[in-house]
Specification:
single chain, 313 residues, alpha/beta, D-Maltodextrin-Binding Protein, domain 2, 2 domains, 6-stranded mixed β-sheet, 13 helices, 40% helix
């Protein structure tokens, strides 16, 4: 497997990935590959940019195993991905939060049955520029004070009078992002996000903005911090820094969370390529998650995913 943790620093996703025709020759075995069965067809997905680094790696590795399958993956955000999934435009939808009740209701209304597969753990990471030499740790209450809109100009000195009397510059995922939804739930508690924030569904835009400004702060998936740790500084939350151990154990609370993909049952049963790709994705999700900077699930969770997939056959 390629060294994805470093490769992704310069290649984390554009708006879409169409990698079915070319890929790494250093691949892991899948059930179909082991059996010597070549598969042909097309598979389409969309959704979370947080999940994207895992799927980007899996798609490219899969291309070497099954060059006859073209897999296309967009990154319109968790909410945007579900919109396309509900319209029947995609075979699977990547998500950095569980599906919402209204999304599930819309899928039921559209007659689309689906299966949820858990892929990895993430620790939503709060980051500042490495030029920021005053912030090391924030509490959950500090985060809420910073990020909730209160009609006032936010300054670092509002949190700690020893910090600079400089205006805070905010970067955050767009409102279609599952990461935005998760932060909204556990930090903002459904209050309005600070109105001055620059919002983007592209995490690379957030990374670049924070890198360039010592007064900037932002948040996104842990893998994007890992890929850019030479130019970003992660902030501990209530004294706990995100890393593999604290994310997996849940000690990095409340910002640890699972990552998902949701697959259409019809696609899995009617499209051999979709079934084969999803099998490969589940079999390799743990290793790829670790390679790009996330945290693998316990093996029994992947075994359950594979059993759920097998039950659809």
């Amino acid at each position: 497997m390629r060294n994805w943790k470093f490769a992704m620093a310069s290649t984390i996703l554009g708006s879409a990935l169409i990698l079915g025709a070319c890929g790494s020759t250093d691949t892991q075995e899948t059930s179909s590959e082991t059996a010597g069965e070549a598969v042909e067809g097309t598979v389409s997905g969309d959704g979370s940019s947080t999940v994207a680094p895992i799927m980007e790696g899996i798609v490219e590795e899969y291309a070497g195993a099954q060059p006859g399958v073209q897999v296309t993956v967009g990154t319109s955000g968790t909410g945007g991905g579900f919109e396309k999934f509900i319209q029947g435009e995609t075979d699977f939808s990547n998500a950095s939060r569980p599906i919402k009740e209204e999304e599930a209701a819309s899928l039921e209304e559209a007659g689309i049955e689906y299966t949820e597969f858990e892929l990895a753990y993430d620790g939503l990471s709060v980051v500042v520029s490495q030029e920021n030499d005053w912030v090391e740790d924030l509490t959950v209450e500090d985060l809420k004070k910073l990020w909730v809109e209160d009609g006032k100009t936010k300054k670092w000195s509002d949190i700690n009078p020893e910090w600079p009397d400089e205006e805070v510059v905010f970067y955050a995922p767009g409102t279609d992002s599952g990461t935005f939804d998760y932060f909204n739930e556990v930090i903002l508690e459904d209050e309005d996000l600070v109105s001055s924030a620059t919002l983007s569904e592209d995490d690379n835009t957030l990374v670049q903005g924070i890198q360039a400004d010592p007064n900037a702060i932002g948040f996104f998936g842990y893998a994007y911090y890992v890929a850019n740790q030479d130019t970003l500084k992660v902030v501990s939350i209530d004294g706990v820094e995100p890393n593999n151990e604290t994310i997996e154990s849940g000690e990095y609370s409340p910002l640890s969370r699972p990552l998902f993909t949701y697959a259409s049952n019809a696609a899995l049963t009617d499209n051999e390529a979709a079934y084969d790709f999803m099998t490969y994705a589940i079999e390799n999700a743990g290793a790829m998650a670790e390679a790009v900077g996330y945290v693998a699930l316990p093996q029994e969770d992947y075994d359950k995913d594979l059993a759920d997939l097998e039950a659809l056959k």
